[in-house]
From TrEMBL:
PANTHER family in the cross-refs: ALANINE DEHYDROGENASE
CDD domains: L-AlaDH (cd05305)
EC number: 1.4.1.1
Protein name (Swiss-Prot/TrEMBL): Alanine dehydrogenase
InterPro entries per record: Ala_DH (IPR008141), AlaDH/PNT_N (IPR007886), AlaDH/PNT_NAD(H)-bd (IPR007698), NAD(P)-bd_dom_sf (IPR036291)
Pathway listed: Amino-acid degradation; L-alanine degradation via dehydrogenase pathway; NH(3) and pyruvate from L-alanine: step 1/1
Native organism: Tissierella praeacuta DSM 18095
Pfam families registered for this protein in UniProt: AlaDh_PNT_C (PF01262), AlaDh_PNT_N (PF05222)
Length: 372
C-alpha cells in the first residue's frame, strides 16, 4: 500500500502524523511512504531523516494525495485539500466530522473511506488514539494556566504553587480521565490544592491510586460543582460533551460565582459544550474574557509540544496503519470491531451516529456499510 503523509496546514499546527522511526516500520513491511517536503520540520524531523528510513519526499500535498492509497494525517481535512481526495481513498486522522459540516459534505461527495482517530476504541472501552494527545493536552493546559496567570500575560499575578506564608492556589478539574489526571499530576506536583470532579466513582478510585494526598476527589453534582466554582483559581474542563446535548455543566450565569481573578482552561474545546461560554481559540490569540473571567480554549494544545506529541501519536496510530496496509482496509475493518468503531465515512455514506444526529443527516452503521 502507498501511504501518504502531507504537511499539516492548520495555523500553528507543527505535528506530523509519523516520525522517521514509524516510517522505517512501514517500509520494512513492504509498503511505500510518501512525505510532503518539510512536513516534519515543525516536529524537528528533516527530509533527510525520512529518506534515510526509506521514505520518498514529494513536492506538494496535491501529489501526495494523488499517489497515496492511504492519507495519514493529524488534523482534519481543510477546504483547500477537498479537491485532492478521491473515491475509495483512505483518510486516517482526527476527523471531528460533527464539528465541520463542510468537511462532512466533501467526504460524502468524494466517497472516501474515513477513519477517525478520536472514535477508535479498545477492549476496555477507552479511546487509545485520543489518550496520548489527551495526556499532553492536560499537562499543557496546566502549563498554559501557569503562563496566563502571570501579570505580564494579562493575569492577576498569581503563581500556581505553594509558597510559605500565603494562600495556596486552588485548581478544579472536571473529569478524571486521561487529560484530567495528567493535569492533576502537574498541578499537585506544584503544591496546589487540586480537586477533581467526576460522576464515575471507578475513575475517581483509579485516580486516587496514582495521585498524591493534596488531590481531592469529589463526585460531580451541582452542590460540589458550585462549591468549587466559588473557591477555585483555575477551572479546567477535561471532559468531552455529547455534541447533540443542548445543556451545559457550567452555564454562563454560573460565572458570577467565580473570583474575577480566576481562569477557565477548556482542554476539550467543545464549543458551547460542558462550559457554555467556551469557544475555540488559537495559539496566536489564545484567550478572551466573558463576564470578567478569562478563558483559554486553544484547540490544539499538543502542537506546542510538537516533537513529543508526534512521537506519542505515531506510537499509538502506527499499529492501526500497519493493520490497514497489511490486510487491506475492508478486511481490517471487518476483523477489528474496535477499529471499525472509528469508521465515519464509507463510499458516500455517513457511518458515525454522533455526526448524523448533530447535523441531522442520514447515517448507517459501520456494519451495514461493510455488509456484516
Amino acid at each position: 500500500m502507498i501511504i501518504g503523509i502531507p504537511k499539516e496546514i492548520k495555523p500553528n499546527e507543527y505535528r506530523v502524523a509519523c516520525d522517521p522511526n514509524g516510517v522505517k516500520e512501514i517500509v520494512s513491511r513492504g509498503h511505500e511512504v510518501l512525505i510532503e517536503k518539510n512536513a516534519g520540520l515543525g516536529s524537528g524531523f528533516t527530509d533527510d531523516e525520512y529518506r534515510e528510513q526509506g521514505a520518498s519526499i514529494i513536492g506538494s500535498a496535491k501529489e501526495v494525495f494523488e499517489k497515496a492509497d492511504l492519507i495519514y494525517k493529524v488534523k482534519e481535512i481543510f477546504p483547500e485539500e477537498f479537491e485532492y481526495m478521491r473515491e475509495g481513498q483512505i483518510i486516517f486522522t482526527y476527523i471531528h466530522s460533527n464539528a465541520y459540516r463542510e468537511q462532512t459534505d466533501a467526504m460524502i461527495k468524494k466517497k472516501i473511506i474515513g477513519i477517525a482517530y478520536e472514535d477508535v476504541k479498545d477492549k476496555e472501552g477507552e479511546f487509545p488514539l485520543l489518550r496520548p494527545m489527551s495526556i499532553i493536552a492536560g499537562k499543557g493546559g496546566f502549563l498554559a494556566a501557569l503562563n496566563f496567570m502571570q501579570k505580564i500575560h494579562g493575569g492577576n499575578g498569581i503563581l500556581l504553587s505553594r509558597i510559605d506564608g500565603i494562600r495556596t492556589p486552588e485548581i478544579t478539574i472536571i473529569g478524571a480521565g486521561n487529560s484530567g489526571v495528567a493535569a492533576a499530576e502537574l498541578a499537585s506536583a506544584f503544591g496546589n490544592k487540586v480537586t477533581i470532579l467526576d460522576i464515575d466513582i471507578k475513575k475517581l478510585e483509579e485516580a486516587r491510586k496514582i495521585l498524591p494526598p493534596n488531590v481531592e476527589l469529589l463526585y460531580s453534582n451541582r452542590n460540589n460543582l458550585e462549591m468549587c466554582l466559588r473557591r477555585t483559581d483555575i477551572l479546567m474542563n477535561c471532559i468531552l460533551w455529547p455534541k447533540w446535548r443542548k445543556d451545559h455543566l457550567v452555564e454562563r450565569s454560573m460565572l458570577s460565582m467565580m473570583k474575577k481573578s480566576s481562569l477557565i482552561v477548556d482542554v476539550s474545546c467543545d464549543e458551547g459544550g460542558a462550559i457554555e461560554t467556551c469557544k475555540s481559540t488559537s495559539h496566536d490569540d489564545p484567550t478572551y474574557k466573558i463576564d470578567g473571567i478569562t478563558h483559554y480554549c486553544v484547540d490544539n494544545i499538543p502542537s506546542a509540544f510538537s516533537q513529543t506529541a508526534t512521537k506519542s501519536l505515531c506510537n499509538s496510530t502506527l499499529p492501526y496503519v500497519l493493520k490497514i496496509a497489511n490486510k487491506g482496509v475492508e478486511q481490517a475493518l471487518k476483523d477489528d470491531k474496535y477499529l471499525r468503531r472509528g469508521l465515519s465515512f464509507y463510499y458516500g455514506k455517513l457511518t458515525l451516529e454522533e455526526t448524523g444526529r448533530k447535523q441531522e443527516r442520514p447515517y448507517i452503521t459501520p456494519e451495514e456499510a461493510l455488509g456484516i
